[in-house]
Task: structure prediction
Amino acid sequence: MTDNAVLRLRAERLARATRPFLARGNRIRRCQRCLLPLKQCLCATLQPAQARSRFCLVMFDTEPMKPSNTGRLIADVLPDTEAFQWSRTEPPQALLDLVANPDYQPMVVFPASYADAGREVLTAPPAGGKPPLFIMLDGTWTEARKMFRKSPYLDALPVISVDLSRVSAYRLREAHAKGQYCTAEVAVALLDLAGDMAAAKRLSDHFALFRERYLAGKPHHQGSVTAEATESV
Result:
């Protein structure tokens, strides 16, 4: 598999850029598919999986272009994953259409503590219902909170909040606080809750290999680094 929704979104974002996007480590020669250093490329290891669950990534500005982004890993494993650039006032029509699709049960993945009083909060997908559509707000924690607060077209949807209750394995960008997890880690937990165990295992393995090779490609990977996180959701 050589393409997915995040890579397409990345290409669109790069095409609109008025100046080069210089991510940390931009001097490293990278595979333009997995964004890892060429010596650490993991493209040959990609193995898509089948799942009843579906994911929709709503990504903040330059997030698709960051080599450390882990939302892309979900799209690697689950090819029907969708990805959209976030807009407060002009959401893509395709995003609105997907959210309104009667074949799925859409829900916004976010910590319950941020939901307004009266908003439905779930701790697991409804049993025996429609396939879940997990809408993930992909960015730094500050960006994710902004997207959650300022996306009125998502306000009527239930929030799903899960507690991973473990130390995050994510060390590519530092979380701002305990209980914050990267997008791929949260997706693994959601797949588990939804009963998509094989897909959860495949994504977990893919994330572990990505993390290992990403850190191996950093000159001083034990030092401080900076953050994509989804708080314990």
